[in-house]
Amino acid sequence: MHTSILHTIPVADFSSENKLFLDFVENPSDGLGGLLQGFSGNAAFWQDFLGAGAYGQKRAGSEWMRILDDVIELGKRAGTAPAVLEKLEQAKHDGVLFVVTGQQPAILGGPLITLYKAFSAVVLSNWLEKLLSRTVIPLFWVGSDDTDFQEIRTLSTLSEDLSPLSTGIPADAHESTAPVGDIAIDSVARTWDSIARRLDAFPKGGFVRECVSKALSAARDNGEASAAVLASLTGGQIAFADGRSVHIRECVGSLFSDYLEREESVKRVVIERGSRLESKGYHAQLSVGEDSGIFLMEGGKRRTVKREQLPLLREVIRQSVGRCSPGVILRNLVQDSVFHPAAVILGPAEIAYRAQIADLYEEFEIPRPVVVPRLAATYIPAPLKEIVEGETRDRINMLFQEPARFAAAIYEDAVPTEIEQAVSRFIKEVGGAVDVFQRTVNEAIHEKLRARLAGRLSELRKRVDQIREVEREAGKAAALERHPYLANVGSVVKPRGKPQERILSSLTPYLFSGETAAGIVRAAAEHYIHELMDGNPSHIVYCG
Asked: Which of 385, 375, 374 is nearest to 351 (CA)?
């Protein structure tokens, strides 16, 4: 095990994950009884799977070339490594495999889940290259055409003392229904400036400052800036496709047309699959509405298409499909129709989506990729390493579920022996004296006075019990003297009461460890992927 990995916790211990995800990772080769494409670490599985479809076949045509040119140009601006760019050039002439993941472009690289997806794609690509002796390219789909501003606007990290530190893109930087990738680079830069000076205390924070500075200089908008930061954090080991690409939509114009004509059938499939999932005790992640699953771009905004406007939408698809933007169902089909990925790296909710739309791949004759769960991990900054690394499995589970209780248990362990003994003696002696006093007085006083006396003695006992507070305070003081950042453990593990990976910025490990954080996170991803392929999935607790 890599020295930065403190614990590996069975995924089944995480009750917060949805049941479908837990069942899938516990037995991935089963594929949830056929609801998903199963997988294993066996070379024969991958060879048989890839030989049965269009995966990695040589592609031709001007549309494919234009898509690759877009990916290469974005990679050059973002900072994709030359070796990956060379593989993209190779894809113009030879068959190559893709491992695809993606996320909407949250500010400056997004939360840790984005980093985990990227490294999972890089690690799985390298693993498949060695296993199959074929060229494999990790590709990150930047969902810049998404419009959920609240989802992407906040940058949350930690101060050097592990207290929370947050900022966010101003509300007036985004118009409702406009693509979040289009947010002006100046707005992103001003948001960064509002927090940058507070990060100067980090001795190794220079890498982050340089990374962000390069991204803000090279990128033209928020979508490209997020990709550029992610490129730096992964050492340039991943390529990028932008969901706004007109060439991608032109390449699959016929898919847009087919989807629109069969949309009612698509909705029935999604509803029926959802019912099937629910009958197995799972949650139907997707619901369908009356609106079309295809949006129109007008005046820089994404507009919903009502049923009565379908003739207009058909004409736009025929004349100018680049003006169309796919909804969540069609986006997956578009991505996989274009790149034919051997595998897609997904989070728990996305895996549930895939289980609900899996039948659509056969209906639209699109190769269905293997679904691989992204790295599941918790980052522990170096100041907390000594506390966490030697703890028991039960204590670590307590840390994830109730960080305050975890800290209280450490405080209790730290109570000086002499204080513990003194408090115990006091409570025993004084408490015993109160008991003797009550028995003696009860025998000597009138019955009517006993009730009043009982109330006063009850208060006295409470005050005796409060001496325990001395013990607790002494333990807390001793623990904080040794581990001064323990009081902020909740801000690290469960900020705002939510899973760390969804809140803390991908920049966080790099603030504490500088450029070496890339190797640390990658090691966690490698351990995770290898265990996953061996049928032993774990949540990785790592330090940097």
From this structure: 374
Mean pLDDT of 132-148: 97
Residues 274, 271: Cα–Cα separation, whole Å:
5
b/e map of 283-296 (b: 16 or more CB within 10 Å)?
A: ebbbebeeebbbbb
Q: Tell me how far apart the alpha carbons of residues 111 and 156 are, in angstroms, rounded to a whole number.
A: 8
Instruction: Please provide the DSSP assignment of 359-401 as one string.
Output: HHHHHTT-PPPEEEEPP-EEEE-GGGHHHHHT--HHHHHHHHH
Residue with token string 């033209």: 220
Q: How far is CA 31 from CA 25, 113, 152, 355, in A?
A: 9, 23, 32, 9
**What is the rounded CA–CA span in Å between residue 238 and residue 72?**
11
* Max Cα distance, the chain (Å): 106
- CA separation for the pair 317, 310 (Å, rounded): 10
Q: State how far the alpha carbon of 4 is from the alpha carbons of 7, 415, 459, 490, 540, in Å.
A: 9, 29, 52, 21, 10
Q: Residues 312-351: pLDDT tens digits?
A: 999 999 999 999 999 999 999 999 999 999 999 999 999 9
Element (H, E) at 118: helix 112-132
Q: Tens of pLDDT along 360-378?
A: 999 999 999 999 999 999 9
Amino acid at position 416, single letter:
P
- Answer whether 96's CB lies under 8 Å from 133's CB: no
- pTM greater than the 0.85 cutoff: yes
Sequence-ordered list of residues with C-beta below 8 angstroms from that of 216, at least 6 positions apart, any chain: 185, 188, 189, 192, 225
The strand pairing partners of 538, in sequence order, are 10
